[in-house]
Specification:
single chain, 280 residues, N-terminal domain of MutM-like DNA repair proteins, four-stranded antiparallel sheet, 6 helices, DNA-binding
Length: 280
DNA sequence: ATACGCCCCTGGTGGC
DNA sequence: TGCCACCAGGGGCGTA
C-alpha cells in the first residue's frame, strides 16, 4: 500500500500523538507477519517512553528512551490506527499489535495481508539492520543526485520501471510514484536504464523529488484502505497523471490521432501506466 | 553481478 | 447467491 509519501505521513501522524508519551500496555496478537515478530517486542514497548521517530525508505523507526528501537513496515495493506483507549469493544479485524499510552491513546497496527513487518533494532547502529543496510539514498535527501542516479543506471539493461522500484538504487519509490515520476520526466517505463541520457536523468531526479514532495503535502494517496493514523484520507490520488488512468487521454498530448491515451502494461508482474507518445 | 519469475496473504470487484 | 479469475501502495529469495 504505502510508498514513501504515505509512510512519511503515517510517521508524522504517530509523532503528533505519541512523541514523549509513555506506553502503558502493548499486546502482540499475531507474530506471524512477513517475518516472525520478536517475542520480546511487547515487553520492550511496555513502560517505554517514545523518544523520537525517523523514516527510512518505507520503514518507520520508533525510538524508545533507553531501549531498543522498533522497526515498522506496512507492507501492502498495513495501517496505523490512532484512537482512544476503551473506544473499541472488540479489537478490529487483523489488528496484530496494540499499543496503549498512559494518557489514553490507543494505537493499532492493522495489516490484513500480513506483508508488513515489525522488528527490534539497535538504536546505536540502525542502518546496519538487515532490512536497512542495502537501501539506496533517500530521494528527498542530499545524496540523491543526478550523479548518483546516472552511476547506478549505467550499463543496466533492466527497464526504467524496474530500476526505480529497486530500493538499492533509490529508496522509497513504489508502483504509483514510479509511474508518476516517469511521466513527469517524459521517460517510458520500458526504456533500458543504461540508455537514458544525462539530460533525462537530470529531469528525472527533479521529477521524483517534485512528485514525492507534492504527494507528502497532500497526505499521500488513498486508493483503497490507506488512511493517515488519524483516519484522514490522503488526496494525492486526484493528482495522478497516469496511475490507474488507462484509456484516458494524456493531458500532455493533443489527442487522437496523435495520441491514443494512457496505456497500462505489465512489467515484472505489476502494472505500469504511461503515455507512449509523451514518454517515448 | 544481473535479471526474472515466484511467493508470501487477504479482500474487493466484476463476469458468468 | 455462488464461484472464479484477476487485481492490489512490497519485497525477499531462488534460479539461470
Amino acid at each position: 500500500m504505502p510508498e514513501l509519501p504515505e509512510v512519511e505521513t503515517v510517521m508524522r501522524g504517530l509523532e503528533a500523538r505519541l512523541l514523549g508519551r509513555r506506553i502503558a500496555r502493548a499486546e502482540l496478537r499475531r507474530p506471524d507477519l512477513r517475518w516472525k515478530v520478536p517475542q520480546a517486542l511487547p515487553g520492550v514497548l511496555q513502560g517505554a517512553r517514545v523518544a523520537s521517530f525517523r523514516r527510512r525508505a518505507k520503514y518507520i523507526l520508533m525510538r524508545l528512551e533507553g531501549r531498543q528501537s522498533v522497526l515498522i513496515h506496512l507492507g501492502m495493506s498495513g495501517r496505523m490506527n490512532l484512537g482512544s483507549v476503551g473506544q473499541n469493544e472488540a479489537p478490529p479485524a487483523h489488528e496484530h499489535l496494540l499499543i496503549e499510552t498512559e494518557d489514553g491513546t490507543r494505537l493499532g497496527f492493522v495489516d490484513p495481508r500480513r506483508f508488513g513487518a515489525l522488528d527490534l533494532l539497535d538504536p546505536a547502529d540502525e542502518d546496519s539492520h538487515k532490512l536497512l543496510a542495502g537501501l539506496g539514498p533517500e530521494p528527498l535527501g542530499a545524496e540523491f543526485t543526478e550523479d548518483h542516479l546516472s552511476r547506478v543506471l549505467a550499463g543496466r539493461h533492466t527497464p526504467m520501471k524496474a530500476a526505480l522500484l529497486d530500493q538499492s538504487n533509490v529508496a522509497g519509490l513504489g508502483n504509483i510514484y514510479v509511474s508518476e515520476a516517469l511521466f513527469r520526466a517524459h521517460i517510458s517505463p520500458q526504456r533500458r536504464a543504461g540508455d537514458v541520457t544525462q539530460a533525462e536523468i537530470a529531469l528525472l531526479v527533479a521529477a521524483i523529488r517534485a512528485t514525492l514532495t507534492e504527494a507528502i503535502a497532500a497526505g499521500g494517496s488513498t486508493l483503497r484502505d490507506y488512511a493517515q493514523p488519524s483516519g484522514e484520507l490522503g488526496y494525492f490520488q486526484h493528482n495522478f497523471k497516469v496511475y490507474g488512468r488507462a484509456g484516458e487521454p494524456c493531458e500532455r498530448c493533443p489527442g487522437p490521432p496523435g495520441c491514443a491515451g494512457i496505456m497500462r502494461i505489465v512489467q515484472s508482474g505489476r502494472s505500469s501506466f504511461y503515455c507512449p507518445t509523451a514518454q517515448p
